[in-house]
Amino acid sequence: MVRGFLAPATLEEFCARVEEIKTQEPLSYDEMFQRHYVNGHAYFQKILHRMMLKIAVDTFKEELVASYSFLSFYQEGRGFCPPHRDRPECYRTIDICLRQRRPWALFVDGEEFLMEPGDAIFYAGSEQLHWRDVISEGNYCDLLFFHFSRAV
User: Fold this and answer.
1) What percent of the chain has pLDDT over 90?
2) Which of 55, 48, 57, 51 lies closest to 18 in space, CA to CA?
3) pLDDT at 49 over 80
4) DSSP one-letter code for 2
5) Domains in the chain, ordered, with CATH?
6) What is the pLDDT of residues 118-143, one digit of tens each?
7) CA–CA distance, 69 with 144 (Å, rounded to integer)
8) Cβ(98)–Cβ(18) under 8 Å?
9) How many Å apart are CA 48 and CA 62, to the nearest integer?
10) Which of 29-38, 98-107, 128-137 has the lowest mean pLDDT?
11) What is residue 139's three-state secondary structure?
12) What percent of the chain has pLDDT over 70?
């Protein structure tokens, strides 16, 4: 886990953009995870995903290809992420906490991580089992994911 992965000004900018997205654009809903989401939003996909590719290559120490970005909005007392491994497009993942009322644990191969806004976790999405338990009443969490696949 990287504490303070996003600088405060960048976190503030991202959160302002997310608020615009949540109030001005249609959101998809995932019944299984009980969350709203936006897949591949232009702001994050075109501008930031390319910037994150270098960080991912440097961190994971392997050649990667930018796959897609994903915004996930978990509402108060609803939503969870069942134990799973991701599909190949999510071979490597950067998971960033944007905002929350209080920390909501992410488990990766059984290890618990408690993120604060601006923190990031780097993991092998298609190889490592990861999950979150049901989000508690009175809590919410907005997450930003950058996914990368293997370079061929």
Assistant:
1) 69
2) 48
3) no
4) B
5) 8-22+38-150 (2.60.120.620)
6) 999 999 989 999 999 989 888 999 99
7) 7
8) yes
9) 19
10) 29-38
11) coil
12) 99
For residue 98, pLDDT over 90 is answered with: yes
CB 48 within 8 A of CB 98: no
Full DSSP string of 2-19: BTT-S-HHHHHHHHHHHH
Tokens at residue 137, please?
């009443």
Question: How many residues in total does the chain contain?
Answer: 152
E strand residue ranges, the chain: 28-30, 35-39, 64-74, 81-84, 92-100, 106-108, 111-113, 120-123, 130-132, 141-150
Q: Two tokens at 66?
A: 């930018």
Measured distance CA(35)–CA(82) in Å, rounded: 12
Cβ neighbours of 117 (radius 10 Å) = 19
- At residue 78, the 3 state secondary structure works out as coil
